[in-house]
Amino acid sequence: MNYLALLVPVALAMGFVGLLAFFWSLRSGQYDDLDGAAERILLDDEEDEGPLPDPVRDGTASRRQRSPKEDGESKLYSGVSNAKHG
């Protein structure tokens, strides 16, 4: 029962600190514009230029970025030899 003498005041202090933080956030205006952030995510940015370029289609991809089918070789994997072992 001695542990309750410590845990109850600690729990009450933590609740009081949480309540103070909530009142501070109310006073500082954290809850003034609840719908603004939700609507801003749906709006397009004017500097948005579209999707990023695809380096494989542009021909600027390195051999490690290409798959074997796109590179024209049957088996091209990094770290694996293409020589046939007999």
Automatic annotation (TrEMBL):
<feature type="region of interest" description="Disordered">
    <location>
        <begin position="44"/>
        <end position="86"/>
    </location>
</feature>
<feature type="compositionally biased region" description="Basic and acidic residues">
    <location>
        <begin position="55"/>
        <end position="74"/>
    </location>
</feature>
<protein>
    <submittedName>
        <fullName>Cbb3-type cytochrome oxidase assembly protein CcoS</fullName>
    </submittedName>
</protein>
<keyword id="KW-0472">Membrane</keyword>
<dbReference type="Pfam" id="PF03597">
    <property type="entry name" value="FixS"/>
</dbReference>
<dbReference type="InterPro" id="IPR004714">
    <property type="entry name" value="Cyt_oxidase_maturation_cbb3"/>
</dbReference>
<keyword id="KW-0614">Plasmid</keyword>
<keyword id="KW-1133">Transmembrane helix</keyword>
<keyword id="KW-0812">Transmembrane</keyword>
<feature type="transmembrane region" description="Helical">
    <location>
        <begin position="6"/>
        <end position="26"/>
    </location>
</feature>
